[in-house]
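Anyone up for a design puzzle?
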């Protein structure tokens, strides 16, 4: 047993996250020169790949849809911690940080991860097959929470600008968290079969047939290394953000692009895991990751920010602008048309990726 543990710890997926955290501790709060930015970026990429590996180990042990839930919640919790940290350290520049980060996460997950997964699955097997009941319910929950937290603040009249009053923010936080917890209950208990992967032949997959599940000790070790890797990903992303901000300003792009780049980095583990699942004909797992991450990003971020606003000064801007509302509405409509048939081809995947391209272009050139 000790030999097995020693062999496990000798793998790069174990020591890369630890090394990344060490680098994070040594560089935290410091202005990094170009060589350290390159080193941090390399360790960041390694931590992303390690996080994907450990998430897959945990997912294999607990089965679907719990495995997708583990990665989605882990990434979102640390993402929320990063947002709150940035709001504390720079409140004068962070009034719209939560809104921009959450909206970027929704567009990346619902168009980027979802579209790429459908495209990979359809290219390999002509059609990407999934369960419309589970996926449709997830999309409906995402649309509801996104509208409640990101659209309504632009239309309420209690406070000037795109912000909630304290009572409205508290209600939105409780409602978002309640909807998210209800979805988790449905996904993992009452209608778990709606979220199990389906092959193109219509076979429901309870677990991987060709691999033995890892031992409990190995799964717990992977869960620990997953959390370490995710902390390293978010922390190193924050460390290299000044260099990214400098590049963005030199390019003449809006400051919001910095948050977009960080969101892309933070969501890399889920993106890679979703594409790998799609390549193995596990499209439902990919969609669980995409929509589950979007839901967790909103359903956990808004309550956390609502609590943080008790001691944070300044207004909190949550309402989207007109262009962003159009993109969100179009994403929901196209997503609904994609989900209803329960199968998709390369066209649907390409449409979602084109919506992501529009979002990225307008973020750089509003």
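Challenge accepted. My sequence:
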């Amino acid at each position: 047993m000790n030999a097995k543990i020693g062999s496990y710890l000798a793998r790069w997926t174990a020591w890369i996250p630890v090394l990344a955290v060490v680098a994070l501790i040594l560089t935290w709060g410091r202005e990094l020169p170009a060589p350290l930015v390159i080193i941090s970026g390399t360790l960041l990429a390694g931590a992303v790949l390690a996080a994907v590996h450990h998430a897959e180990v945990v997912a294999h042990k607990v089965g679907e849809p719990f495995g997708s839930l583990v990665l989605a919640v882990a990434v979102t919790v640390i993402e929320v911690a990063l947002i709150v940290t940035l709001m504390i350290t720079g409140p004068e520049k962070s009034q719209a940080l939560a809104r921009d980060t959450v909206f970027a996460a929704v567009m990346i997950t619902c168009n980027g991860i979802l579209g790429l997964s459908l495209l990979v699955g359809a290219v390999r097997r002509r059609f990407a097959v999934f369960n419309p009941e589970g996926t449709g319910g997830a999309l409906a929950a995402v649309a509801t929470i996104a509208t409640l937290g990101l659209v309504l603040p632009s239309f309420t009249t209690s406070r000037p600008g795109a912000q909630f009053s304290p009572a409205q923010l508290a209600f939105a936080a409780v409602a978002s968290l309640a909807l998210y917890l209800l979805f988790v209950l449905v996904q993992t208990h009452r209608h778990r079969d709606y979220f199990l992967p389906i092959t193109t032949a219509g076979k429901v997959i309870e677990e991987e047939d060709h691999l033995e599940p890892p031992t409990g000790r190995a799964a717990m070790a992977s869960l620990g290394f997953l959390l370490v890797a995710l902390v390293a990903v978010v922390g190193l992303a924050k460390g290299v953000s000044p260099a990214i901000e400098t590049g963005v300003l030199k390019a003449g792009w809006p400051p919001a692009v910095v948050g977009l780049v960080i969101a892309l980095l933070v969501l890399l583990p889920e993106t890679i895991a979703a594409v790998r699942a799609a390549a193995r004909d596990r499209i439902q797992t990919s969609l669980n990751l995409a929509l589950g991450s979007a839901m967790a990003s909103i359903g956990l971020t808004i309550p956390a920010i609502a609590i943080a606003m008790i001691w944070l000064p300044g207004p909190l801007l949550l309402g989207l602008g007109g262009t962003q509302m159009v993109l969100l509405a179009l994403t929901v409509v196209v997503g609904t048309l994609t989900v209803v048939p329960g199968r998709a081809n390369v066209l649907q995947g390409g449409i979602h990726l084109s919506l992501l391209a529009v979002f990225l272009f307008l973020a750089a050139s509003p």
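A detail worth pointing out: Residues 216-251 form the longest helix (36 residues).
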